[in-house]
Sequence to fold (299 residues):
Amino acid sequence: MGEAVAAIDCGTNSIRLLITEDGRDVERLMRIVRLGAGVDRTGRLDPAAIERTRAVLAAYRDLIASHGVSRIRMVATSATRDAANAADFHDMVRATLGQPAEVITGTEEAALSFGGAVTGLDGTGPYLVVDIGGGSTEFVRGHRTVDSAISMDIGCVRMTERHLPDDPPTAAQLAATVADVDAAVARALAHVGTGPATLVGVAGTVTTLAGIALALDHYDPARIHHAVLSAGTIEELAAELSAMDHDTRAAIPVMHPGRVDVIIAGALILREIMRQTGFVEITVSEHDILDGIAASIQD
Fold:
């Protein structure tokens, strides 16, 4: 038997845990805590959001202990890069987990996401991996390793809070979101390039859209992993979700309750990425930054 390791990814919208042993998933969990709620507007983490995160982290700590994990790496991303009171979050993590969280740069986040996303894909690339998070979206181009990467502040929570106060949003609000996203995507693609590649999408927005497109009656990671969605399907989903009210979106079988209010912004981000890159399809991966974090601490 090999040693068990634990990876924790604390993002703007969710906190996730992966425990692996001998390359096998022992636990893979996700909880929506919305740590980054209001950060784009206030520049600070809400104490209630820190407490929500603490409660989940404490449960993760106990689960980690029950599996005899030898090494833990916790990574904190967009929300804690932006917040003026990030020290409150870090004090909580040390008190709860017994070790600090690493606040990684957007470029480091992109590299970890890439490493997880391309695991199990045929060939050697090139790949363009897009990781649509709550606070930011990472763009990473490479083969088996990263050639170029950039992180842009156009996550689904950030764009929802910034532009989409109504539900369903107005045409003007949708247009403002698209304008903001388009400018960021253009800058990102100028950095990572737009040459031929396999487009790979990771994280909750993309996997949820895949579940909807597959008409699943429950969230099924095995069917979602490596599903291929066409650009036309993404166009249709973005339009349909943008026209739905909250209750209609919440009734979609694969929709996590914590994603109902931010899936429109997420779908628009993915749609604009596909429009600007010209890719006709995207491969969905259930493997992402969590897998990259776990791999980074394994022998």
Remarks:
- The chain has a mean pLDDT of 92.
- The domain at 4-103 is CATH 3.30.420.40 (Nucleotidyltransferase; domain 5).
